[in-house]
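User: quick one, fold this
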Amino acid sequence: MIERKGYKDMEEKKIQIGILGYGNLGRGVELAIKNNPDMELVAIFTRRNTAEIKTVTGAKVVSVSEIEEYQSKIDVMILCGGSKADLPEQGPQYARLFNTVDSFDTHVDIPTYLQQVDAAAKEGNHVSVISSGWDPGLFSINRLYSDCVLPKGNTYTFWGKGVSQGHSDAIRRVEGVAGAVQYSIPKEKAVDSVRRGENPTLSAGDTHIRECYVSVKEGADRERIENEIKTMPYYFKDYETIVHFISEEELRREHSKMPHGGFVIRSGVTGNADDTKQIIEYSLNLESNPEFTSSVLVIYARAVYRLKNNGEVGAKTVFDIAPGMLSMKSRDEIVKELL
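Assistant:
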C-alpha cells in the first residue's frame, strides 16, 4: 500500500502548478488553486500578447514560446484549451514536456486521445490525466459505479439546463462567428420516463435540445453558419438544434453567466425474478461550469503529482485513480471524517 500523508504532514514544498491557456477555464484554475493550500501557481502561459492580459490574482503571465524553460520549475501543467482544436495537439505535445491534466471532452475520441497522450507521456517519463472534469470525469465515475452495482439495467446521462463550454467553443470556431453560447436542455418527457424506471430506448435527439445564441462578424453568411452548426459531427448533428442570431452586446448582457449541471441515472433490477426496480441518481447544479470544472482539474493535478512521485508514468483516466489520491487530507483523516 502506498503511504499517503495529508497536507499538514507534508514538507513545506507546495505543488508547483502551471496553467496553459487563459480563458474561462484558465481563470477558474487560477481561482481554484487559492482554495488548495498545498499548491502554488508558478505562471500562466498564453499564445496571446502577455502585456494585454490582466489576471484575477496578479499571477505571472508568460508567452507559450518560453514554456520549455519552465520544465524544472513546474510539477504539473494544467491544460485549459478547448477539445475541438487545442487539446488534440496540446495534449500529446505537452505530455512529453510536463506532467499534465486536461479536460478533453469529445467522448467518442477519448480512446484514441488516451493512446496518443499515453505514448507521449511515456516518451517524456511523465504522468498525464486526461478527460477530467465533471463529464467526462465525475459523471464517468458514477456511471461506472452504478453499472457495477446494477449489472442489469440502463444508464442515462442528461446535461443542463446550462452552458456547455465545449459546444460553445466549437461554435466559436466556425468561420464568421464573433461569439457564441450554447445551452444543453434535457427533454422532460425522456427524463420522466427514465425516473419511472421504464428503461426507454433513447436516441441523442430524444434526450436533449441544443439551443445556440450566436453573434456574427459583419458580412458573415448566417445561413451557412447555421447549417455548419447544425451539421457539426459529435456536437449538433444528431440533436434538435436551435440557432438564434443576436448582437454581441445582447450576448454579453444576457448570456455572460455560465451555469450548468445535469444528472446520471442508472435504472436497474434486482431479485430472483428481476422484479425489484432500483434507481441510482447523481446530480450537479452549478452556478459556474468553468469554475467547477477547474476545481476538478486541480484535484487531479494533486493525484498526478503523487503518482509521479510514486514512480508512475503514462496517461491515466479518472477510472485509474483511487479517490483518496485526490484529497489534501491523510488516509487516517478521510477514513475518520468521511467513511
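User: anything notable?
Assistant: The first strand starts at residue 15 and ends at 20.
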